[in-house]
Here is the input.
Amino acid sequence: MILLQSHSRFLLQTLLNRVQNLEKSVELDYHWVEFDDVRYHVQVSMKNPHIILLSVSLPTPPLETFFLGGLPFGAIEAIKAAYGVTVQILDPPRDGFNLTLKLNLSKLPPDEENRYSILVKVASVREVVLGAPLRVILKYLASRTVAPDIDRLVALVHRPNESFFLVPQAEKVTVVFPMRFKDSIDTVLATSFLQEFMESRRTAGLSNAPPCLWSHSPPLELQGATGDALSANAGFVTFVIFPRHVEGKKLDRTVWNLSTFHAYVNYHVKCSEGFMHTRMRRRVESLIQALSHAKPDQEKTKKTAHTRSFKRLSLKDSRTNSSS
Here is the structure.
């Protein structure tokens, strides 16, 4: 299985190129979109070549989620904790975006290793922002407590107009994903994939992994959710996160894997579909070759050593000539 990287590769490469060419006054204006409809915009002016403006547009949140100032709760605190004085939050953000950050490259540490780690963290702004509420809840789980003033059922956005749900408790956090796919073939493949995904949890090497359940109907934890949130044509996946899954450095990995679980499944579904298409094309090509070899040779005119020509007759033609 392939896990998605937490940082944007294009954004990281753009930041590294700018750091390595600070003496050159180059104007940049890049737009691009990554999975789950997260849009980026990077601007660098010739007047201030050491200043980078990074704008991020998040997926459209459904009604059941809670955004504060266009961002998930806890996002502002997470940005300040992750970037410190290197990054400044611009208020209001650029039109059409949820967040605009001002990155001052002159404030990066001189040490190359530390500078690279900060740039990787900036390129992981998606994880920092979208994963902020999940990180808050799981941090309380690590201390075996529940975040104050938290609802019994928490909805977090992860795709346009789609959310997944958390049921926070002192000893565990239950995470439920309604799995939706637009294409009917993707739905069938995803259902099969998720069933195998649940079965693989029972292998000996994955005994410490979070328990995983899959069902066609909504689990009991989703009682009280809206009707639209309970519609899922590929079933529901439930993970149970315990304190041991968020201890120390495991927290970052758990937050990212849960935040991008639907994208992870969708990626492998598309890979499976592409693999089957490739196998089918190869099979069709082999059948076509077999049929072409089975065709009788076309009638050919051959010449003898004395330059006389003759025509090979079929059995039907020979009978016709003999009767005439």
User: Anything to note?
Assistant: Residues 109 and 124 are 18 Å apart (CA to CA). Residues 261-294 form the longest helix (34 residues).
